Structure formats: structure tokens, C-alpha cells
Amino acid sequence: MALSQDMDVLLLKLPWQILHIGDCRFFAKVSFTDSSYCFLLSDLSSVWCEEAAADVIQERSKELNKRLTAPISSFLSHLSHFIRPLLDSIEKTPHSLSCSRAPDRLLLHVKSRLSGLPFYWDFHCREADIRTVCRHFLQPLISMSKALDAQCQELCTLLRRKDEEIQDYQEGGAVLSRDRLRTETFDDHAFYKTFISKNIPEQRGPSALSDRLQQLYRDVVVIQEQQETTAAGDGVRPLTEQSHDGDGHVSAAPDPSTDQQGVDDGATQKPSQVPLDDVLSLTQHPPIVISKAKKRKAKGLFT
Length: 303
What we know:
Helix content is 39%, strand content 19%. It contains eight helices and nine strands. The chain has helices at 5-12, 54-64, 72-83, 130-171, 188-199, 211-233, 256-261, 276-279, and strands at residues 17-21, 24-32, 37-42, 47-52, 97-102, 105-114, 117-127, 242-244, 250-252. It has a seven-stranded antiparallel sheet with strand order 1-2-3-4-7-6-5, sandwiched between helices. A two-stranded antiparallel ribbon has the order 8-9. A hairpin with a 2-residue loop joins strand 5 (97-102) and strand 6. Helix 4 packs across helix 6 (211-233).
């Protein structure tokens, strides 16, 4: 199932939140308007979504609530007030919300009361298409991972420079006034191994994102939208546009920049230069030359 363009843009700006339904935990995005709603759910093994307009809501409300007559906006307002407090809630989800799974869909069942009468609702979430999964999960998470890795590399570089600074002070005769402030020389390889073995918990399902990660997700999405807008303004064809030859093979659209470069006949094309920051991993850094300072008199910097 694919989302409409307007709802896709609206959901993309929302952070992923945790929704507990019984013993199951889901990443969830939900949006309610006066005449429609959209639900996006994932348990890290599948992604489901439902987008319902006014006609679908009207027909389903007649099937589930034959004794209840109310405007569509009232139904949606009630569902919004019912669902939103459950997002990122540490309290146990009430029994009035349950779910059942089928091979190609996920059903969410709501039981509550509206204007003193029983109110029932079913969210019919079907498997999302690959574009929705990539746009809301894969692309932002890859960008977040690259940003966090770059930040980690910069922090590691800063720690090594701090160690060089401390070494320079010590060679100049400075001493610590408090021994408890002494630290070991930072070793990024040992730190990485310790972090992996001790500090990464076993992931058995979705877990709540910290406020910092949610803000990072928002920032990444904003940059992603700006890049897409710029690419559209420059007339760049999206990656999904592919051409098919007569044999049924799929080929990507040609890059117009290659036609402007003008490669000489018989000349060997030079390989593209990959930035060093994209090649280096967390535990791989360019060597740093440490120049040993000459002995100097103590200046009392640490006293």
C-alpha cells in the first residue's frame, strides 16, 4: 500500500514513537485531520500502513457503530484523543486496544465509548510499499548513522589532541594537583571493542528513541526534503526512473554530467576520488604525528 503525496510529506515530519499493544511493541506514526487519518506501524520485521479518507471512514463507522450517529470529525477527534496518549507511554496499554495479524495485514481493534454509547473501530493496516519503507525508515536511519559516525570520529580526534596537550604539559614539568583527575591515554580501538561488547543491548524489538535521536531524525528529514526540492528544481531525474530495453533489462537513467565531461578517445578515465571521511570507519583514522616537545621549566599550570 502506498501513501498519498500530501500524507507522505505530513508523516515524514513526525518522529517515530513507541506504541505498546499487549505484549507487542511497534514504531508508530499517526496523523489525524478533520476528514482523514493515516497510520504507519513497524515491528522491525514488517511495515504496515492505512490511509483512510472521509468515504471510507463513513462506511466503516456505519458497519461498526450502527446505533451511533455523529459527524466524521467527531469520530476522528475521539480516535485522536484515544491513540495519542498511548504513544511513548510507559503505562500498560489498556485492553480497549488490541491487534490481530494476517499474512498481509495488521488489524488494530479499538473499544471505547463516545457520548455514552459504545464505540468500536478497526484500523486495517496493510503492508507498506518499498518506497514508503525506504523514505521513512531506510534513508533517514542511514543518514543518522553517518552523522553519528562522523560526530564520533570528531570526538575521537578531539580526545587524541587533548592527550597530546596533556603530554606536552607533563613534558614541561606540570603535575596534577588532584590524582583523581588522572585519565588513561585514549585508545579508540579498545574503546570501540568495549562499547560493542558491553554497552549495546540485545535488540528484541522496537525501543523508545531518546529526545536527541528524535531531534536528529527531524533534522535529517528536513535536509532530505531540501535536497529533493533542489534536485527537482535542477531537473535531476529520480533514481526510481529507469528505462527498459527490448530484452526486458532495466538500466538506470544516464547521468547528464557524463556527457559534458568529454572523455578523450583512447584515454583511460580516472577513478572518482572518494572523500577520506566516507572511507574511514570508527576504528580507522589517519595517523597523527606527535612531535615531542623539549623540556621546559614548570609553569605551575596544574598546581
